[in-house]
Specification:
45% of the residues lie in helices and 19% in strands. The chain has 11 helices and 10 strands. Helix 2 links the parallel strand 1 and strand 2. The radius of gyration is 25 Å and the shape is globular. Residues 1-25 form the signal peptide.
Length: 327
């Protein structure tokens, strides 16, 4: 190869390398610019449960305030995508563009439980977790017209009449489903599980006397217990409520709560996560949101992205031992 040809090839290779480096630099700069100017268009929040469920109610309450808290005051819409106990919505969000315009709101079950059953296309740590906003204990409730006035009476009836009592849950493989299995084992209950597509349908079934009892979150039970439409018999969490004993007080090794949080697709830019988290914190401090939550019994319990990520990891590992029968 002569010197002219060698020089020519060297010049071409140098130009090509500079072009590649320039393109990479522009791509990074474009990504940083997009994150710094976020948001510039409406944001959609997916909810994996039907309208009227706790997840839906909390999301819509916060979404109304989020519009005012976000830069540029963009519109925030809520879309219900029920199915699979919340798995359908999580699957859609995990696989969406991580630009912050499609996010979700969910309880912990679709991440910490369903991922152990082999029926999800995502792992528990695939979503980017943004902010936790509330925690709600699970409660066993019955219709006020039922014969049971206490958990002891309910338990005795399930033993005297094996298989005759039905308990509604938000769906197969949900946390209440697992609570019921634990209660069967620890208390010797013999009951039938009736899965529904979410909390609201299960509660409606109990109010219509289509099932004998339900295990749902406190926010699904307590407002109706206070109005006399339902009767709460046992709390599976740690909160103290008047006239509602906890499972631990009754001698059972049970402590279960639902954690509700915002999340996004895998690999969301940190700047976008911080922007959303900051706006969510302002939203849950909004007096209108606080008042709305108080009216329906929601207790705000904020955790940052880092904190909720660690909580979900720990619960995933704990439930894995329980579900796989190794604890």
């Amino acid at each position: 190869m002569n010197k002219k040809m060698g020089s020519y090839i060297f010049t071409l290779l140098t130009a090509a390398l500079l072009a590649v480096l320039s393109a990479c630099g522009n791509s990074t700069g474009s990504s940083e610019t997009e994150a710094s100017s976020y948001p510039e268009k409406p944001i959609k929040i997916s909810v994996g449960f039907p309208a009227g469920a706790v997840t839906d109610t909390v999301t819509r309450t916060i979404a109304e305030s989020l519009t005012k808290q976000l830069p540029n005051e963009v519109d925030v819409a809520v879309e219900n995508k029920p199915g699979g106990g919340g798995v359908v919505a999580v699957t859609d969000i995990v696989n969406s563009n991580p630009n912050g315009y499609e996010i979700g709101f969910t309880p912990n079950g679709p991440l910490t439980m369903h991922t152990h059953y082999g029926n999800t296309a995502y792992d528990y740590d695939d979503p980017t977790l943004i902010s936790q906003v509330i925690v709600s204990d699970f409660i066993l409730a019955v219709h006020p017209d039922s014969e049971w006035k206490s958990f002891e009476e309910f338990l005795e009836s399930t033993k005297d009449n094996p298989g005759s009592v039905s308990i509604g849950t938000p769906g197969d493989g949900s946390r209440p489903d697992l609570i019921m299995d634990q209660l069967k084992e620890q208390a010797g209950m013999d009951v039938n599980s009736v899965p529904f597509e979410g909390n609201a349908p299960a509660r409606t079934a109990l109010m219509g006397k289509d099932v004998d009892a339900v295990i749902l979150t406190e926010t699904d039970i307590l407002p109706y217990a206070e109005s006399g439409e339902l009767k709460a018999l046992l709390n599976f969490g740690e909160k103290e409520f008047d006239d509602i004993p906890t499972a631990q007080e009754k001698g059972y090794d049970l402590n279960a709560s639902a954690i509700f949080f915002f999340y996004g697709p895998n690999d969301m830019p940190k700047e976008i996560v911080q922007a959303l988290d900051g706006a969510i914190q302002k939203a849950i401090d909004d007096p209108a949101v606080v008042e709305s939550f108080e009216q329906v019994g929601f207790d705000i319990n904020y955790k940052s992205s880092e904190e909720i990520t660690e909580i979900i990891k720990m619960e995933y590992e704990q439930l894995g031992k329980l579900i796989n029968g190794s604890s």
